[in-house]
């Protein structure tokens, strides 16, 4: 229940909402007969129906300190699940729940699951304990200025002028893009998918007979359009990998297509061993093409390791990869593949955590927190398009507590405007530094791919920043396959 914040007190109906044109917070209330729990991640109240007279649904009922404090009968007591504390169950039904829980670990692992196979070099145990990461919020002014200078020097030496803006499209999505019923939010995702298909086509990766693996597939939208873009999808295999189970999957639309071979794997990329995907890969000799749209932070490095290190004992080989990059603030030193490049430029593991924090300057907008400290208001749903990838800095994220009587978020101390003014780091300058930081981290990945493969590797901007601020992609192809 660490991700939940509840507001059990209903706002006074006499509070005026005010003129929507005027600046100020907007009060949001739970729907009648629905749960009064405020889901911070979704910026709205839970929509589950509650029992008559109850304020919360069964999942969001606050956990009592003792049975006697709330006068609760033991049959009504809910406790966190031992397999996954993010959900709860009735204490009296625990034994039955553990037998059917979706988070229950399997008794035997399939051959394609090898725990930690793509995790990279683990840190020594003594370095993991009681070690605070260096971030924008706790770094000294001197260290921050020095790391920015070092970063800008590295960017100018290796990256500047080497990334082209190349938005493309694909004919398979022309009709979908011309649908007048779609709004800007939907169209942005379609434009990105169309450009990624265009990049695959130009790079010679949309060939018949390939096995396409979409990492972090989510609902599988990119794979769905891949089946439309390949001239003969019946000769290909399509494998979707995601550690979560999603509703409204696009691959459900392809279940009735008997000539399309589609496999969905529920697996964490850090544990995925491609050579164990029998008989999908070990008995075949086709090229494997890895694809992904907006693969978050550390998952990008896990995917690169998976594609370059776990295919050796299979009959297939890597034909190429295309990854749309994002969420660099969620990168981690252990699996990051560009450690050798950063080390050669004088960066350390401590510097890496600061660099990942600096990347948030590129995409966090004005840098203002969504809720001001001490304000007890609930904002309306965030209607910004998810394609913009507006990601708050990790050190600005509010600390999530157990359900309480009011929604009260106390933000940690953040760098003040006075500090940025003193260091001459205005908003535009910080955004540019954050962008350069992202590209330096991506260049480390490019160098790794050049070192461990004989392929041609490029960094490109595949859409304009107006479509998505996370508009960079990494494409890796055989030299003879490049269009």
Could you please describe the fold and organization of this structure?
26% of the residues lie in helices and 13% in strands. The protein is of the alpha/beta class. It has a domain at 141-346 and 430-481: 3-Layer(aba) Sandwich (Rossmann fold), CATH 3.40.50.150. 34% of the residues are buried.
Primary descriptors:
12 strands; two-stranded antiparallel sheet; alpha/beta; 8-stranded mixed beta sheet; about 475 residues; Rossmann fold; single chain; 12 helices; about 25% helix
Q: Could you name the CATH class of the domain at 141-346 and 430-481? A: Alpha Beta
Distance between the termini: 50 Å
Average pLDDT level: 80
- Number of strand elements: 12
Low-pLDDT residue spans: 1-18, 369-414
- Tally of DSSP helical segments: 12
What would CATH call the architecture of the domain at 141-346 and 430-481?
3-Layer(aba) Sandwich
Order of strands across the main sheet: 5-11-12-10-9-6-7-8
Give the CATH superfamily of the domain at 141-346 and 430-481: Vaccinia Virus protein VP39
Structural category: alpha/beta
* CATH topology category name of the domain at 141-346 and 430-481: Rossmann fold
Per the principal axes of the C-alpha atoms, what is the gross shape? globular
User: What is the H-and-E element order?
Assistant: EEHEEHHHEHHEHEEEHEHHHHEE
Give the C-alpha Rg: 24 Å
% residues in beta strands = 5-15%
Helix content: 25-40%
Main sheet specs: 8 strands, mixed
């Amino acid at each position: 229940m660490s991700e939940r914040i509840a507001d059990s007190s209903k706002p006074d109906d006499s509070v005026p909402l005010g003129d929507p044109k005027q600046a100020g917070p907007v009060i949001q209330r739970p729907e009648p007969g629905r749960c009064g729990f405020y889901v911070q991640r979704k910026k709205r109240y839970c929509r589950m129906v509650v029992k008559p007279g109850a304020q919360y649904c069964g999942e969001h009922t606050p956990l009592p300190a003792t049975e006697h404090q709330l006068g609760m009968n033991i049959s009504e007591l809910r406790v966190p699940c031992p397999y996954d504390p993010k959900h709860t169950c009735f204490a009296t039904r625990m034994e039955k729940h553990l037998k059917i829980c979706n988070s229950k670990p399997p008794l035997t692992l399939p051959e394609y699951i090898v725990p930690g196979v793509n995790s990279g070099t683990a840190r020594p145990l003594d370095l993991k304990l009681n070690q605070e990461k260096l971030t924008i919020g706790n770094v000294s002014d001197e260290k921050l200025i020095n790391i920015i200078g070092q970063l800008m020097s590295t960017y100018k030496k290796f990256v500047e002028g080497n990334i082209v803006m190349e938005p493309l499209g694909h004919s398979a999505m022309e009709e979908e893009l011309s649908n007048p019923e779609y709004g800007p939010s939907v169209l942005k995702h379609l434009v990105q998918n169309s450009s990624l298909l265009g990049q695959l086509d130009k790079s010679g990766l949309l060939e018949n007979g390939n096995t396409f693996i979409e990492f972090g597939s989510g609902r599988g939208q990119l794979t769905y359009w891949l089946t439309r873009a390949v001239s003969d999808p019946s000769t290909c295999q399509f494998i979707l990998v995601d550690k979560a189970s999603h509703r409204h999957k696009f691959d459900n639309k392809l279940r009735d297509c008997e000539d399309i071979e589609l496999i969905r794997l529920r697996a964490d990329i850090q544990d995925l061993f491609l050579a164990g995907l029998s008989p999908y890969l070990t008995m075949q000799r086709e090229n494997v093409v890895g694809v992904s749209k907006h693969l978050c932070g550390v998952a990008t490095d896990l995917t690169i390791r998976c594609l370059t290190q776990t295919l050796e004992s299979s009959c297939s080989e890597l034909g190429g990869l295309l990854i749309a990059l994002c969420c660099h603030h969620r990168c981690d030193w252990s699996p990051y593949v560009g450690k050798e490049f950063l080390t050669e430029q004088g960066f350390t593991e401590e510097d890496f955590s600061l660099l990942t924090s600096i990347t948030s300057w590129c995409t966090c907008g004005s840098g203002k927190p969504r809720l001001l400290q001490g304000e007890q208001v609930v904002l309306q749903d965030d209607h910004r398009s998810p394609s913009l990838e507006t990601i708050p800095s990790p050190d600005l994220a509010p600390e999530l507590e157990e359900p309480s009587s009011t929604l009260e978020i106390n933000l940690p101390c953040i760098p003040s405007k006075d500090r940025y003014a003193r260091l001459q780091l205005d908003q535009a300058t910080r955004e540019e530094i954050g962008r350069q930081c992202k590209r330096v981290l991506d260049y480390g990945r490019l160098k790794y791919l050049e070192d461990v493969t004989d392929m041609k590797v490029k960094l490109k901007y595949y859409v304009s920043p107006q479509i998505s601020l996370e508009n960079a992609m990494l494409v890796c192809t055989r030299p003879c396959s490049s269009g």
